[in-house]
Design a protein that fits this description.
Layout (H helix, E strand, L loop, with lengths): L17 H16 L3 H14 L4 H13 L3 H14 L4 H14 L3 H13 L5 H19 L13 H5 L3 H9 L10 H9 L5 H13 L5 E6 L2 E6 L10 H13 L4 H18 L9 H17 L8 H18 L1
Antiparallel strand pairs: 1-2
């Protein structure tokens, strides 16, 4: 079993070649960049077993512990790093504050943010970031009565055993304070091919809105892609979605009943397909496709001769809703 940081002992008179420490440090930092946090943690632990006050190793080790959800130990190591003197002070302070928030030491987190802002040590480009951290901390404090989440409910096997509506409700009931702590479980749900598609959407929305840093692979129908959460398309104010809607509104301005039907269908599919937004079609083609599809519901005819794939996608989406709703 891996020992905790507090168990580290100096090596006394043991001679350690500098190349050994440098090799382990380089190895650990490479794993860290590749987001292999367990491997990085183990390599950096070995560095610290030789040099317990190695600032770079302490910084990387703290970050690994944070990403792995080992917040109590991360706090201990981060405090040691601050005593030693971090290489990247502001980044370390930001991580320290984030850890304090995870272990619910909100008063200390607020104090550290206030000190940094009041002493004006923050460059302009970082000031707004720390204001946001303070606002987030305040929101968390306002919800300190939130019950602890049973993380085992979000493990992939028991989660998939639930009915889609139950999966959805379990995600919607999840407090924002828990997103970071169970991030890996949420990402695993998104990436699993059998997870409910709308539930995947809700998780993506939540992670995006709370600015959770992560990369995730998403598959829905014939679409596949890998996304950074921070770079997801805005689910509310999206220029492509607005443009498609505008085309529909212009074309059906004289037929408000049909326009309402087309928009209802389209908006339903926005949530189902997200984060994909008909990426392989032009905006006018998407708008026309949905108008033709609804026309076909009444006439039994469609004008999809040029692109049957779009028709198939719309039909598959509607069939999915029918099967989900029983």
């Amino acid at each position: 079993m891996r020992k905790k940081y507090r168990d580290l002992k100096r090596k006394g008179n043991v001679i350690v070649f500098p190349t050994t420490v440098n090799r382990l440090l380089a190895e650990g930092m490479t794993f860290l960049k590749e987001e292999k946090y367990e491997d990085a943690r183990d390599s950096l632990y070995q560095v610290l077993s030789y040099e317990p006050e190695h600032a770079a190793a302490l910084g990387g080790y703290t970050y690994c512990l944070y990403e792995l959800g080992e917040f109590e130990e991360a706090l201990e190591v981060c405090r040691e790093l601050l005593n030693v003197g971090p290489i990247h002070y502001l980044e370390t302070m930001e991580l320290y504050i984030s850890i304090l928030m995870q272990v619910r030491e909100f008063e200390e987190a607020e104090k550290m943010i206030e000190v940094l802002i009041e002493e004006k040590v923050l460059p302009e480009e970082r000031l707004e970031q720390f204001h946001q951290l303070r606002e987030l901390n305040e929101r968390i404090v306002a919800n300190t009565a939130t019950e602890k989440v049973d993380a085992s409910l979000y493990a992939i096997e028991p989660f998939l055993a639930l009915h889609p509506a139950e999966q959805e409700q379990l995600i919607l009931d999840l407090p924002t304070t828990s997103y970071q702590a169970i991030k890996k479980k949420l990402l695993a749900i998104i990436e699993h091919p059998e997870a409910d598609l709308l539930t995947k959407t809700y998780i993506l929305f939540m992670l995006y809105q709370e600015k959770i840093e992560a990369e995730v692979a998403v598959q829905k129908f014939n679409y596949k892609g890998t996304f950074h959460i921070s770079e997801l398309p805005d689910p509310v104010n999206n220029s492509r979605i607005r443009s498609i809607m505008a085309i529909m509104e212009d074309a059906l301005a004289k037929d408000p009943t049909r326009l309402e039907l087309v928009k209802e269908l389209f908006e339903r599919h926005i949530y189902l397909l997200y984060p994909f937004i008909w990426d392989d079609y032009k905006e006018a083609e998407v708008a026309q496709g949905y108008m033709d599809y609804t026309e076909g519901l009444f006439s039994g005819l469609t004008s999809f001769d040029e692109d049957e794939k779009l028709l198939e996608l719309i039909q598959q989406a509607e069939l999915w809703f029918e099967m989900r709703n029983g």
